[in-house]
Amino acid sequence: MIDVLIADDQQVVRQGFELFLSGHPEIRVVGHAKTGVEAYEQVRALRPDVVLMDIRMPHGDGLTATREVLAEFPATRVVVITTFDLDEYVFEALDSGAAGFLLKDADPEELSSAVLTVAEGGSVLSPRLTSRLIVEFARRKPAPMSTARSGSDHGLSAREMDVVQLLSQGLGNNDIADSLSLEQSTVKSHISNICKKLQVRTRVQIVIWAYRNNVIAVSR
Description:
This protein is α/β, with parallel strands linked by helices. The chain contains ten helices and six strands, in the order βαβαβαβαβαβααααα. It folds into two domains: 124 residues, Rossmann fold (3-Layer(aba) Sandwich); 71 residues, Winged helix-like DNA-binding domain superfamily/Winged helix DNA-binding domain (Arc Repressor Mutant, subunit A, Orthogonal Bundle), CATH 1.10.10.10.
C-alpha cells in the first residue's frame, strides 16, 4: 500500500484529490496539510511514501516544505502540484529534488498513475506542461545545475540520447518503449544509467539538464 499526504491550502483540492485516489486499491491517503509547516510536520508524523505538494501555501510555502522534507526524509517522493500558469517556485522545487509536477486539473487516472510511478522510483512531468517548460528554460538560460555534468562531458550513449530526446517531449516509459521498440524495463534501466552519468536524481532533472546545456534544441 502506498501512503499519500496531500498538502494544499484549498480544501476542495484536498478533498478532490483524496476522492480521486481513494478508488485505487494500492493507494491510501493518510493525511492532509493546508500549510507548508503542517506539510513538514505531517511527513514527520506519518512518514508517507508520496507527498502531493502545492507550492503557494501560507505559513511556510511548499518549496520550503519540499526542501525540509527531502533533506530529512530523502526516500519520500514529492510531486509538485501547480496551476497551468507556471509558478516561479516550480523550477526551484524541481532543482531541489521533487519527483515531478502535475496540473491541479489532472484527471483521476493521471493522478493515481503519478503516485504509482514516483512510489516506484520514477518521476512525472505533465505532458501538457513540457513545451512551456522548454520555452521557459530557453528564455531564462540559467547556469547548469551544480551537481550535473556539463553538456560536453555527459558520456551518454546514442541510445541514451534517444531516451533523453523523448523524455524532453514529455513521453512516459510506455511511449518511450513503443517509440524505440524496447521493453519498459530496458527504458527504466536507461533512465537510471542516464541519472548516474549526469549525476542527477530524476527524469525531470534530466530534461532540465538537456535544455540548460543545449543538448536538445528548442523549437519555437
